[in-house]
Amino acid sequence: MPPQPSRRTFLQLTGVSAASVALGVSAPASADATPARPIPDGAFALGVASGDPRPDGFVLWTRLAPTPLATDGHGGMPSADVPVQYEVAEDSGFRRVVRRGLAIATPDLAHAVHPEVRGLQPGREYFYRFRVGNQLSPTGRTKTLPATGDSFSFATASCQAWYHGYFPAHRDIARRTPDAVFFLGDYIYEYGINAGDNLWREGVTVGPEHAVEIETLEQYRLRYGLFKSDPDLQAAHAAAPWFLVWDDHEVQNNYGAANSLYGVPPELFVHRRAVAYRAYYENLPFALDSLPDGPDGRIYRRYDVGSLARVHLLDTRQYRDPLPVDEADRLSEQRTIMGAEQERWLYDGLRGSRTPWNLVAGGVVLTAITDDRTEQWDGYPANRRRVLEAMGDAGTAVMLTGDIHRHVASELKLDFADPASRTVGVELVCSSIGSNGDGVDTDQYAKDWLQHPYVKLYNARRGYVHTTLTRSELTAEFVTFPYIQADANAQPNVVARFRTPAVDPRLEAL
Asked: What class of enzyme is it (predicted)?
């Protein structure tokens, strides 16, 4: 029998059934692998992906969508269940297949499937593909986490506004084939795409259905179809397993908990959050335990990269207190950007870690910059202090964030107001993949960041960060591109490299 979801009522899932979700993970052994009716050509137009890697497996993903930009959000698929076969092999030619299975793509979940593959060897490269009828998907590469581990390479990326430019950064990430990719929020943007205002990607057009701010399930599905149609994004997904967290634009700009900054009443906004979270799950490689329950979805989770590093993925949107109303409110000891339950979970995970590195991945910048940046951790200084104290009790902390469309490298001080305070780790902030167009090397905000001696880099070009961990050190490369609006052919430039010793957390320029 297919696995049954736990901790789910499904009564709040805006119409999707428990059976549909379970079938999208694994079909019963008796299920027929032949589609009942022909499937339109180009079923795998959105590519393939893997995610949530573990030492014994990972999650696979595809969504059948021969017409990704169909305005009803169903990708040109018929309203029927479709069997999808998958196989996993030790080689790209699929001569050594180690797993085969079947999942059912249902209209309820926009014909997406999320097979969970287990029982594999740790620290191994694998290849996978899907089949529906006589159509074969592109081949994806993925990797299990190591059982022990002496090195781990990963890319960090965020903020991919398709309409602001092409994605050469994703093409370069695919070329490097890292062990994993951390995507740190703003996978899509909800804004209306108007040619006169913000369609900066040259040589493309969009229909009028994209000109409005998205708020329905069908519109969210369509927006994912648009963004995921990019070939370089598909290549990055097919090159490595992804860890993902959300920020605000997967729902609405600067939202927090059930609060919209644009006047949507909370009792209505939770419905928008529910359909946005559902579309997020449908279009990305998440395990079943990240399935949203209506407007609630638990995406904070933890992984161990053998005995080398512990990974903590955060949710800094769903549980945050509202933005402060005044300085006394901002400084309140009770304020939290994570919620009490997630705070306890993180502190327990940090203090219980026995690895030399702790990777903490979230949507917004932790480093103290200016008091008026209340959207970031600057709006929650008491919560930040508690996090830094917990980091100080663990192995060297590496905070991975995005959001600001800038590259920043910073040392994390136990007390940012005291220059002599202990450094407990480093923060690597990746710029955007596409948001804000070409960018520049520096801009009017540089002085806010570089006024602090603990900030070692500020760059406002587009790009990503490539990081390699060993037991003795971290090496981070900040990769930028000279342009992205004209085409996808810009070549990468490593604008800065830093080394951080495991026993002495600091940023040493290379």
From this structure: hydrolase
Band (pLDDT 50/70/90 cuts) for residue 15 is low
> Could you tell me if 149 and 194 lie in one domain?
yes
Counting other chains too, the contacts that 15-19 makes at CB distance below 8 Å and 24 or more residues apart are 15/108, 16/108, 16/109, 16/278, 17/108
Q: In the chain, what is the straight-line distance between the N-terminal and C-terminal CA atoms, in Å?
A: 55
Residue 259 lies in a domain: no
pLDDT tens-digit readout, 87-96: 999 999 999 9
Q: Which residues contact 155 (CB under 8 A, 6 or more apart)?
A: 173, 176, 178, 180, 181, 182, 240, 464, 465, 466, 467
Number of domains in the chain: 2
- Rounded (5°) CA angle 242-245-250: 115
Is 363:404 a contact under the CB 8 Å cutoff?
A: no
Q: Which residues face 362 on adjacent strands? A: none
Output the DSSP codes for 56-82: TEEEEEEE--SSTT-TTSSTT--SS-E
Domain termination residue (choose one: 143, 169, 202): 143
Helix count (H) and strand count (E) of the chain?
9, 23
The answer to whether 382 touches 334, Cβ cutoff 8 Å, is yes
Cα angle at 402 between 397 and 408, to 5 degrees?
70
Query: For residue 257, is it within any domain?
Result: no
Query: Is the same domain home to 100 and 179?
Result: no
* Global model pTM greater than 0.85: yes
Q: What is the 3-state secondary structure (H, E, C) of 307-349?
A: CCEEEEECCCCCCCCCCCCCHHHHCCCCCCCCCHHHHHHHHHH
Place of tokens 């939770």: 270
Half-sphere exposure of 92 toward its Cβ, with a 13 Å CA cutoff?
7
- Buried b / exposed e along 332-365 (16+ C-beta atoms within 10 A): eeebbbbbeebbebbbebbeebebbbbbbbbbbb
Q: What is the largest CA-CA distance in the chain?
A: 70
The string of pLDDT tens digits covering residues 322-353 is 999 999 999 999 999 999 999 999 999 999 99
3-state secondary structure of 223: helix
Residue 243: count other Cβ atoms within 10 Å of its Cβ. Answer: 22
Query: Residue 256 domain-assigned?
Result: no
Tell me how far apart the alpha carbons of residues 470 and 152 are, in angstroms, rounded to a whole number. 7
Q: What's phi and psi for 336, nearest 5 deg?
A: -140, 140
Look up residue 30 and give its DSSP letter: T
pLDDT digits (tens, 9 = 90+) for 188-214: 999 999 877 899 999 999 999 999 999
Q: Are residues 94 and 221 in the same domain?
A: no
- Beta strand ranges found along 21-149 (DSSP E): 48-54, 57-63, 82-89, 97-105, 112-113, 116-117, 125-132, 135-136, 140-143
